[in-house]
Every structure is written in C-alpha cells, then in structure tokens.
Amino acid sequence: MPEYNYENSLLQITLPTLTSFNEYHRELIELAVNCSSKSLIIHISCQEIEFYSNYPTKCWTEIRDLLNFLYISGTKVAYETLKHFLEIDVIFEKWNGYNIELVKEKNFDVFFGSESEQSRLQEFNSSRKKASLSEIHIHIFDTKTSPKNVHDQNRKDCKLNENPKIYQTVAVGGTFDHLHAGHKILLTLTAWIAGKKLICGVTDDCMLKNKKLKEYLEPINTRIAKVTKFLNAIHQGLLYKVEPIYDVYGPTISDPDIRALVVSRETISGAGLINEERQKRGFGTLETFVIEVISSSNPSLKEGELKDLKLSSTYLRELCKNSETK
Length: 326
Description:
Layout: E1 6-14, H1 23-34, E2 36-45, H2 47-52, H3 60-80, E3 87-92, E4 110-113, H4 118-130, E5 137-140, E6 167-174, H5 181-193, E7 194-203, H6 220-234, E8 239-245, E9 260-264, H7 268-280, E10 287-291, H8 313-325
Parallel strand pairs: 1-2, 1-4, 2-3, 4-5, 6-7, 6-9, 7-8, 9-10
Helix pairs in contact: 1-3, 3-5, 5-6
C-alpha cells in the first residue's frame, strides 16, 4: 500500500527530447499513480514540442509514441492497483496554452517530481503566490532507477521558412464511452495536427443498440461533455465542435473545409467510405492519419506488457455492472 494518498495530483516531467523517455520516467509515473486516488496530470515540459508545434506532421510518430508510453504506463499501474477509473491526463506545457498550476478547478493536493524537478515545482508555487493562490505541497520521489544522461540531439531537418503542414480543420469520431487512455491518445493526436478547428463526432445512442452492455453506456450528453472538457484541457488554442453523429459519415461529407481525418486502425474502413462520398459531392479527399493506439510492437512499449491490459469501454462497462451487483 502507498504511504501517501492524494486525490488530485500533478507529476512534472521534463524531457530533453521527444524520444528521451525511459524506465526512469516509467517508475516516476508508477509512483505517482500509486499515490493518487482521483486524478493525475502528467505535465510534460519539452522544448521539441514547442518547436514542432508549427510542423506537427514532421514528428507525428514521436508524439504518438510519447503519448502511448505515458498513458499506457499510467493506465497499466492503475489497473493493477484496481484504480480503473483514476483520471489520467497528459498535458504538454506551452502547447496547452495556459499555466497548469494556476487552474483553480484542478484542486491540486500535491505536485510530484524527481529531485531534478524541485526548482520547477517551486516555480509553480511562486506563480501561485503571485496569483494569490495557496501553495501546493511538493513531494519528491526517491526512485530506484537512475535517470539517464541524454545529450541534446539535433532537431530534425526542418526549414523554419517553409510552409508548415498544418490542417486548419481536422475531424475525428467515436463513441467515447467512459473516456479512457485510448480515446485520449486519439483526441490529442487530432488536436496536434489541427491548425484552427477540430470537429469531433460522438456516436449517438441510436447507433449503439447492439453494443455490449449498452445499458451501462454513458448518455450522449455526458460523453460529449467529457470529450469537450478533455480537449479544452490539453489545448486551448483551437475551436472545438463536439456534436452527435447519426451515421458513419457525420459532418465529413457536408463540410468542405475539413482537410484531414484521424482514425484508429479498427475504423480505417470508415475513412475509405467517407472519401468516396466526398468525391461524389465534389469535395477533396481527406488526408487520413491512422493510429495504432494499442500495439505491443510499438517501440514505446515493452513487448507483451499490454497482454492483460483490457483498455476498452466494454471492459469499463463490465466493471460498472459488477460494482452495481455487489
């Protein structure tokens, strides 16, 4: 059992590069999850994120692998400790558009970090003091794993005067029941490549009649509200339109301004149908980005570590059912 138990916590992690995460960071996440009971924000500071924000497609793979590593590391420990509904959010500093430590609604009980993050956490409290907010307790973790020395690597060849590959309007869709790590990776990557507007279609109840344990599905308004809240938490620089959809197409075949579509590997066939319909209507086809959120072959994950991790809304609905029958 953990020695400490905080409801709402923040773990500060500073990365030299997008690919410098390792077992040391996995241990920090494990310690933070063990000491959190309601919500945990993993706050990432990395200069490369700020650098590539104007050229998001150039580091699509690196951002995906980083998100996979962070979310899966946290979710795996949460499930192992029976904290299936611990709310874990990954937030990128600066790209998010606000100072996380000043958000009153977060109700932080503690700031977590390694010894090397102590001064950064103290800066958080200094910022809070200037804003007439109370200081937050700082908890420094003593890790068994030693941090690796990572030398600053040269950024990829990226001419700053070239036209950035940003899609002004990007679409994504899904059921988003019991919003979990897989959903959050999908939504974050969609926001990452969007320049102005993100349209998210949330599957309406009328399309979910054959869903397993449909009686434990969250109402459409709840799912829309959770998606909207999450999107505004990760990135405040976009216009979000989160709305119910009643078929596989949603607004993608009626809005000519949409330029890209983000899908999971399981729903890639829908992308083909959407582009066929857009061509019939004289719209341009959408650039499609495919995410393999859960993959043991992904280099950011240990081989086989997800074998017993049931990261799905169906599994969470089963837990709701079991808790109701006890």
